[in-house]
Amino acid sequence: MKYIFSLLLLLVITVLALFASQLIGMFLIAIVYDIPIIEFTNQMQNMSAHPELRTPILILQGFTQIFSFLGAALFFTKYVYKFNQANPNNGTVHVINPDLAQQFLEEPFLRRYKTPAFIFLVVVVLAIVAFPAVWVTGALNGAVEFPEALKGLETWMREKEDAAQTLTLFMTDFASPMQAILGFIVVAILAGLTEEVFFRGVVQPLFQNLTKNKHAAIWITAIIFSAIHFQFYGFIPRMLLGALFGYLYIYTNNITVPIWAHILNNGLTLILFLFVDKEMLNAPAMETNDFATMIPLGILSILLCVGILKFIQKQMNKKVEEVVEGKKSW
Fold this sequence. Notes:
The chain is mostly helical and about 325 residues long. It contains twelve helices and no strands.
């Protein structure tokens, strides 16, 4: 019951933080750019006609990310969440080895656990290998058609998808190198940092304590992570990415690893969009004759991702065993 209450309280804190950060951010933009808030809001309804809004919108996006997801997560962790006091005999949901439960649970789970440097290099390979799976599942997801009885729902979902894509494409149509740098900071770095601290650092452990099952916690969190983006025709690939980040957190017990993976995914996508293909940020489409080649590639990509995750798990288990043996010999 306490974890259900914690989740509800986290929801309230996050909604309030989101509302407050949007309001404060718009107020600050109105002052700095000398744009009345009402006028700024009206112009955002037709962004393509107001390219001068790109920098203010990027700043507002970054401000909102910091003070909603990150702010809510840190506030919740510091003032609300009660960490379980486990002992080595009963284990814990936060770590991959019960022998280290007491060591980790004496500190907030947001603090980093030392991870070998080469794991971060392996995650670079993982981010690249995951691209075909993301693309193929995105194309399949985007091809979904609803029955006639649900056409109203489909229309609403398409409108949300189009609105999200319009905002994303507008924000990333950079007019200068400085704007591109700001965009990379907001779209890749801040998004990766704030969303991972919130979803993997706070939400996932709460569900793990609630369900007593790490896999259930990872997938529930991944579903919520995908749903809050309101891009339903990219729901499946984003959910799979959320699960990937969740397993990275579980296997390494280091929040910086999924943060790094998230930044890599967003950053690589943005770089490909800027320098290779302007359609990278659009929902992928697949012609009928592409299925025969792309689906096997997507399956291979998923299998390789699973293999790399297992490799990371094995390497981290060795690291944990070394720490445990060191403590015993001491």
